[in-house]
Design a protein that fits this description.
Shape of chain A: elongated
Largest sheet of chain B: 5 strands, antiparallel
Shape of chain B: elongated
Strand content of chain A: under 5%
Helix content of chain B: 40-55%
Radius of gyration of chain A: 21 Å
Number of domains of chain B: 2
Number of domains of chain A: 1
Largest interface: A-B, 31 and 35 residues
Oligomer: heterodimer
Radius of gyration of chain B: 32 Å
Number of strands of chain A: 0
Helix content of chain A: over 70%
Number of helices of chain B: 15
């Protein structure tokens, strides 16, 4: 039967779902954050602020900025996902409240 | 009776083999795919006045959009544009459901292109399923190998094109041919290429099901008058197989012959007859499939069709409803706002920075001098001459600067400026206005204030 092969077709495990969602959503957030941040700040100016001798190619500046935001956003949404998924279940008595 | 399924979250991952189907919506979706991908791959090659028509030049921090040059200071325009795009999405969702998902989303469009390549190398649905089950042989290796070759080359080209929006693509092409690509450029190209390969080749509908935020919240924009793909249950049930010669009514059957074609063509592997599901991306493949069967059976088309929940319940459906009006109104207001703001944009920016090293300098003959650095950004594409003047402070005069300042097109000029005033006019902290005006266009004018500091006595 054709329908048999589809029932329950290709389901991701809960962990895989969570992992990919965290990576993807933090990627999107990081993209937006990078855009807003670097619209205001020039990476060359920032490098100058940290150390006046530091010469940073714009490419490297944008890349570092983007990955910084990505890791940070992933940390945030990863922890959120972790806490939500591992929260103690409500016992039956209170379940319908 | 089939056995009850084990908890689906632990079911082994099964691959979906979408079946190919021709038809009206298939033509439409092919047209959308070719148009959108064509635009993506072509646009970076277009020129406008000897430079790339659309280029986000990150190192120079300038965005070229056709004849327009946008600067970081113009970021609010970009933000507004993104908001307009978001509201367009809401508007079209309220009106016509997930049109975006089925026909315009990059995920769908690239997946479609990857499925074409799969069909080209591995054949039809049943051939693909057989091939995957078959043991490794030379033929299998050849088919799988050529599919991977097509996929990978297409992905690399995609990554290269993507980078072409940020790096002049003609030069990039030369760099690639001469194996001379800069490190980060290469990295982002491979990154985007790999993402395309993974998303369109392997993850496909899983992205829509598990990773897409829009798929989850689009239901908030739905109501019973939104266009959806729906199975006409009243007409179709009770479903069942029958010979073409059998009179369905007499046999007590509905119009659905339970051929499963609508399930086989579904790229997300759902059964539309079970009602609207969030996995449905409105690609309309099931409509094409069902129509083809209805034609064969000599039944009227439209057992599965684009319709609204109200219409399928035989109640009147209203396209123009408050929700649609509100989204449309907001959209019009935002577009008008953006156009006005863009049109009234002054293509020059003036920053005034006071010299940090000294408050003031005392000159002979009882004059007080302050030093500033003016940063003049000429946002237009042509060189311009600006006239510089100061006002707002009695007795202050520019010292040692000609009153005409040339700035090249798209250039930034740092101009040290000395201003002097008599001691009696310059006591304490005064506000001073710097004003620049384009010589060729009096409407291009901008004023910035700063402080002029003098001795308190």
């Amino acid at each position: 039967m054709i329908s048999e092969e589809y029932r329950g077709a290709k389901q991701w495990s809960r962990n895989k779902q969570a992992a990919f969602t965290v990576v993807w959503i933090s990627f999107l957030s990081a993209a937006v954050a990078t855009m807003v941040f670097f619209a205001i700040f020039d990476p060359a100016d920032l490098a100058h602020l940290i150390d006046s001798n530091l010469r940073l190619s714009p490419d490297l500046g944008y890349a570092v900025g983007f990955f910084f935001f990505w890791v940070f956003c992933a940390l945030c949404s990863g922890l959120t996902a972790f806490l939500v998924r591992t929260a103690p279940k409500r016992d039956k008595k209170h379940r319908n409240q | 009776m089939s056995k009850p399924e084990p908890a689906s979250m632990y079911a082994s991952a099964k691959k979906i083999y979408p079946r190919e189907i021709g038809g009206r919506f298939d033509k439409l979706s092919k047209l959308a795919t070719i148009t959108l991908l064509g635009l993506f791959y072509l646009v970076p090659w277009l020129l406008w006045d000897d430079r790339q028509a659309i280029l986000f030049d990150l190192p120079a921090r300038k965005f070229y959009l056709l004849g327009l040059t946008l600067w970081p200071q113009d970021f609010p325009f970009l933000a507004m544009l993104l908001m307009i795009l978001a509201f367009s999405l809401f508007f079209f969702t309220a009106l016509a459901g997930r049109l975006w998902c089925g026909f315009a989303c990059p995920q769908t469009v690239w997946t479609e292109a990857f499925i074409w390549m799969e069909q080209f190398t591995e054949g039809t649905r049943s051939q693909r399923m057989k091939l995957d089950k078959a043991p490794w042989s030379f033929t299998k290796l050849r088919k799988k190998g050529s599919k991977q070759f097509l996929w990978i080359s297409f992905s690399m080209w995609t990554g290269f094109t993507f980078i072409g929006y940020f790096t002049p693509i003609r030069q990039l092409g030369v760099d690639i041919v001469t194996l001379n690509v800069a490190g980060w450029t290469l990295f982002w190209g491979l990154f985007y290429g790999f993402a395309t390969y993974g998303n369109a080749g392997y993850m496909r509908e899983q992205v829509c099901k598990y990773m897409c935020p829009y798929a989850r919240f689009q239901s908030a924009m739905f109501d019973k008058d939104t266009l959806i793909i729906s199975y006409d249950e009243k007409r179709g049930e009770p479903r069942g197989g029958r010979k073409r010669s059998v009179d369905a009514k007499a046999a007590g059957l509905g119009d659905c012959i339970d051929c499963q074609l609508c399930v086989q063509v579904c790229p997300t592997g759902i059964d539309i007859r079970e009602g609207l599901q969030y996995e449905c991306i409105a690609c309309a493949a099931c409509i094409d499939a069902c129509d083809s069967i209805m034609d064969k059976m000599n039944y009227p088309r439209g057992l599965v069709r684009f319709t609204t929940e109200h219409a399928i319940q035989h109640e009147g459906t209203r396209v123009l409803r408050p929700r649609v009006y509100i989204y449309a109104m907001l959209l019009v207001i935002m577009i008008a706002g953006l156009v006005t703001a863009m049109a009234s944009r002054t293509p020059v920016i003036l920053d005034v920075i006071r010299d940090r090293n000294s408050l003031y300098r005392e000159l002979p003959e009882d004059f007080i001098e302050n030093i500033y650095t003016l940063k003049i950004i000429n946002q237009s594409n042509d060189a311009r001459v600006f006239s510089l003047s100061i006002n707002g402070m009695q007795g202050a005069v520019l010292d040692g600067v000609g009153d005409s300042v040339p700035v090249e097109g798209g250039g930034v000029l740092s101009l040290p400026v000395r201003v002097k005033a008599r001691r009696e006019d310059a006591r304490g902290v005064n506000t001073i206005l710097f004003r620049i005006e384009a010589m060729d266009d009096a409407s291009v004018v901008i004023e910035e204030d700063s402080r002029f500091i003098g001795p308190t006595r």
